[in-house]
Amino acid sequence: MEHIKDVLSAASRGILDSLRGFFLIFTLDREIELQRSLKRETKSKIIRRAQMTTPSTSKEKQEEPRILHRTLQCSLLNGGVFCLSIFAFNGIILPLIEALLTFSFSFGGQLNAAQWVWSWTSPVLSATFSTLWILPLFVLSKFVNCFWFQDIADAAYKYSRGRPQLLPSISKMIADMLFSMVIQALFLVQAMVMGLLPIAVFNGLLSMLHMCLLYSLYSFEYRWFNEGWELPKRLTHIENHWPYFFGFGLPLAILTSIPSSTLVSGNEARPTTKANNYPLRLFSPVVALANTIFNRTIGRSRST
Predict the structure, then answer these.
(1) H or E stretch at 69
(2) pLDDT in single tens digits along all 304 residues of the chain
(3) Which among 54, 71, 153, 231 is least surrounded, fewest beta carbons within 10 Å?
């Protein structure tokens, strides 16, 4: 009973932290600017006491991106493309195909046959659309927007925790980023497969669990990257404390929220670590598959 209470408490904490980030995004710029002003004022006093000239701070202001501005840029790019494509497919293309199928079968009076054909055609079309469009678009947006997302995460991290502690080498950072993209893409495929299982209700819940954890990884990854956490540690942490991260990703999975706003939530949240008695190794299959892919491609090229 106590374990169930811890799970529910962690999930509730995750939901609250996620929702808090939606409102924090509008006020964090002002708080960061106030923090910078105090630092500049303190620095100016020290310089004046030492009888030195105060350096210009205009360059610093130009180099530091505003969080809300970056968020709007990411929202327009990702939200516009994703939402419009999904709306067009579900609201226009699928109904049009269903109408044409029903119309073609109506001449022979075989409406029941049309419904039967559509019952298996619709899932196949949805899975094909997700595999050939949503999945590549997800990977592309992950690569294109990583710089904008990193700006948002860096600004929030510096405000709350100070100087980021990145991975020790550039090559290790690039390898970690590429491997993370592969893991997230494969995990998205795994979530789609879970949704296609012929088990009513359970398949939807299992797919939802996957998407919640994927959203949480997508949100917290930049914070953990700034803390010097490598991908295996990030995935293990989510699996060990899945109730919190399930709750954190739940509003995003339900509302298909703007992913960029979750970055502030991930940097400002305080994940609870109480409910960790029953870890879910949901990332293990895709990690094993990704390792196999990399070993057979990169490992083979090195050996030759």
Answers:
(1) helix 67-74
(2) 667 888 888 888 888 888 877 677 667 667 767 777 777 777 776 776 665 544 544 444 444 556 666 666 666 666 667 778 878 888 899 999 989 988 888 776 677 888 888 888 888 888 888 888 877 776 777 666 666 666 666 666 776 666 666 666 778 878 888 888 889 888 988 988 888 888 877 888 898 899 999 989 988 887 888 788 889 999 999 999 999 999 998 887 887 544 444 455 555 566 766 666 678 888 988 988 888 887 777 666 555 5
(3) 54
Helix 231-240 vs helix 242-255: crossing angle, to nearest 10: 90
Closest CA to 97 of 118, 124, 127, 83: 118
Distance CA 304, CA 299 (A): 9
DSSP per position, 21-32:
HHHHTTTHHHHH
Q: Tell me 151's DSSP state.
A: H
The model carries a pTM of 0.64
| 28 touches 67 (CB < 8 A) | yes
Torsion 97-98-101-103 (CA) sign? negative
Question: In sequence order, what are the residues at sequence separation of 6 or more whose Cβ sits closer than 8 angstroms to the Cβ of residue 250?
Answer: 11, 14, 15, 18, 208, 212
Alpha helices in 256-283, H assignment, sequence order:
262-268
- Angle at the Cα of 81 (from 86 to 267), degrees rounded to 5? 105
